[in-house]
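Quick one:
INPUT:
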């Protein structure tokens, strides 16, 4: 029997890991420019961290967590997202003693028991940042700028950045009253889940993907949270927009954008692609000024985002963008016979020390098949060693670009390779 990967998980095969690494490398470079340092937190945490952090009534906490009891009876959960763990680490390790904002980034797998479909998996990878310790709207704009920069670096321009403010708890209280008022008489039209959400988590109804619920909001007559912002939240949002303009970042206001976590306050945003179908958000983020306090620290404002690597790569595919990662082999060594194999090992060592990517095979194959393999690896240069070459203490050096080849003596090999 051949085992299969568990439903909702997938292998990232060698053909794809090059792209994957390129995305990660680019992210590290951009985040470094913005002053973020990497943090690595555990893949599992106590379940309570997520129920407190993300919110007890959210879909993630009620339906999507991989929770298990360990051998000592503790309830643990595979992290469904990165922000809660980063804030736990920030508090536990006294990172608040560093100058604010403390800028952290992370890269790693997240786990959600969702219904798998294109762009939605039960294990997915996120690249995210958290900037902790400032409520300045310029930081919101800088955080958005940072991810736009990364997308530009990857060759993706022109994705839509959707922006909204969901205000503070006070703004939201008033808004929820208005939203419930609007929904009066329409409750029968809501899906079963949203009927329950009315009391527990009414904002999420705005974001339900069921046609029945979507149709209630499609004429955009529902009250907009932006109209319920208190003076402070309104000024904050106006400044975020002003700074984004200053940074020449295009955005669309989506007054019905709410996100699936209770920790958000004020700014929320998503970067979406219209070519991805239902799972169209590549990046999601926002400000969460109450989370640090919720998790036991002092009231500390923060803002961040996360991008899903799988969804990013899917969208690059749909946009026909090729990531310029290098799979090329510099030198392929083809050899005939055991003595020539020994020589090829010696030469490999010297060339690798000099920084070349060198490949050889470990089976007896004809020269013709070895050259075919060299072609498959896109090798720039091929070294050929047979009996004659061994006797003459030379190798044949072939330039695969123009097909020319010549005999080179062992001591001159490195120099000649450099010259090609
Ligand atoms: P999120 O929107 O839940 O936000 O996830 C961020 C990104 O992860 C999404 O935009 C999407 O690209 C990817 N993603 C989420 N779920 C899946 C899935 N099941 N399969 C594939 N990709 C997925 C957060 O997690 C917040 N912690 C972001 C944040 C950081 N907010 C502030 N700081």
């Amino acid at each position: 029997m051949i085992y299969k990967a568990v439903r909702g998980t997938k292998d990232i095969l060698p053909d794809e890991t090059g792209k994957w690494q390129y995305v990660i490398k680019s992210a590290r470079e951009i985040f470094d420019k913005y002053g973020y340092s990497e943090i690595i937190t555990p893949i599992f945490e106590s379940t309570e961290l997520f129920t407190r952090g993300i919110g007890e009534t959210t879909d993630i906490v009620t339906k999507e967590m991989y929770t298990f009891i360990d051998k000592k009876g503790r309830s643990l959960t595979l992290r469904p997202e990165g922000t809660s763990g980063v804030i736990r680490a920030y508090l536990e390790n006294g990172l608040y003693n560093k100058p604010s904002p403390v800028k952290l980034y992370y890269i790693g797998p997240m786990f959600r028991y969702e219904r798998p479909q294109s762009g939605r998996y039960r294990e997915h990878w996120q690249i995210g940042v958290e900037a902790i310790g400032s409520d300045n709207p310029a930081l919101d704009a800088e955080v958005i700028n940072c991810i736009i920069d990364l997308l530009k670096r990857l060759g993706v321009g022109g994705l839509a950045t959707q922006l909204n403010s969901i205000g503070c708890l006070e703004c939201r209280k008033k808004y929820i009253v208005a939203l419930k008022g609007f929904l009066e008489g329409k409750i029968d039209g809501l899906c079963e889940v949203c009927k329950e959400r009315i009391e527990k988590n009414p904002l999420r109804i705005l974001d339900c993907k069921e046609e029945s619920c979507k149709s209630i909001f499609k004429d955009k007559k529902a009250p907009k949270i932006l109209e319920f912002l208190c003076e402070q939240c309104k000024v904050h949002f106006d400044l975020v927009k002003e700074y984004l303009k200053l940074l020449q970042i295009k955005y669309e206001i989506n007054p019905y954008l709410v996100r699936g976590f209770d920790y958000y306050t004020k700014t929320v945003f998503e970067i979406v692609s219209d070519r991805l179908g239902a799972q169209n958000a590549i990046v999601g983020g926002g400000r969460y000024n109450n989370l640090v306090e919720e998790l036991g620290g002092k009231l500390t404002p923060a803002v961040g985002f996360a991008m899903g690597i799988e969804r990013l790569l899917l969208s690059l595919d749909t946009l026909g963008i090729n990531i310029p990662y290098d799979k090329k082999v510099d030198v392929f060594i083809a050899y005939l016979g055991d003595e020539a194999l020994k020589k090829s090992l010696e030469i490999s060592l010297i060339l690798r020390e000099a920084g070349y990517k060198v490949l050889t095979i470990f089976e007896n194959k004809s020269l013709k098949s070895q050259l075919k393999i060299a072609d498959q690896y896109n090798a720039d240069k091929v070294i050929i060693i047979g009996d004659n070459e061994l006797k003459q203490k030379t190798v044949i050096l072939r330039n695969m670009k123009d097909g020319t080849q010549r005999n080179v003596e062992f001591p001159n090999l490195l120099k000649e390779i450099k010259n090609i």
